[in-house]
Amino acid sequence: MRRHELTDEQWAKIEAILDSSRPGPKPKIGDRQFINAVLYRARTGIPWRDLPERYGPWKRVYNRFNNWAKAGIWELLFAALSIELDDEDEEGSIVDATIVRAHLDAAGEKGGSRETLWVALEEAFRQKSTP
Fold first, then answer.
1. Span 89-104, average pLDDT
2. Which of 4, 20, 107, 123 could tie 40 with a disulfide, CB 3.0–4.6 Å?
3. 3-state secondary structure of 63
4. What is the pLDDT of residues 34-83, one digit of tens each?
């Protein structure tokens, strides 16, 4: 099994959902291989055209992904696989650090607040009360 692919345990949870919800004829690429292709793309951030050949033609994978999105299959999967909260927990949250923004000063950007600089200088050069 490769790093970006479903484990047997994960696939067992998904397989039962897909058997009852997938419309249309049986595809040439199996459901597990297709989901692995989508996961690979999502985890690596590559364009559809750069999918490895082991997943089949990229256009076929893309079209199937699009069809599943329109049919609401992804929503069914996400709902079925979502984490159930305990009765004690009133809320759950996920933090994605890619959306946390730092101030320009933290990134070494020119400019910024001169007020902060003056406060630091005043503190550093404050007169001592002892002779």
1. 59
2. 4
3. helix
4. 999 999 998 888 999 999 999 999 999 999 999 989 988 888 888 877 76
Question: What is the CB neighbour count within 10 angstroms for residue 14?
Answer: 16
Helix (H) or strand (E) holding 13: helix 8-21
Contact 82/17 with Cβ under 8 angstroms? no
Instruction: Give which of 13, 69, 80, 8 is closest to 38, Cα–Cα.
Output: 69
Contact 74, 14 (CB under 8 A): no
Measuring CA to CA, which residue among 21, 108, 104 is closest to residue 67? Answer: 21
SS3 (DSSP) at 108: coil
Tokens of 111: 């400019």
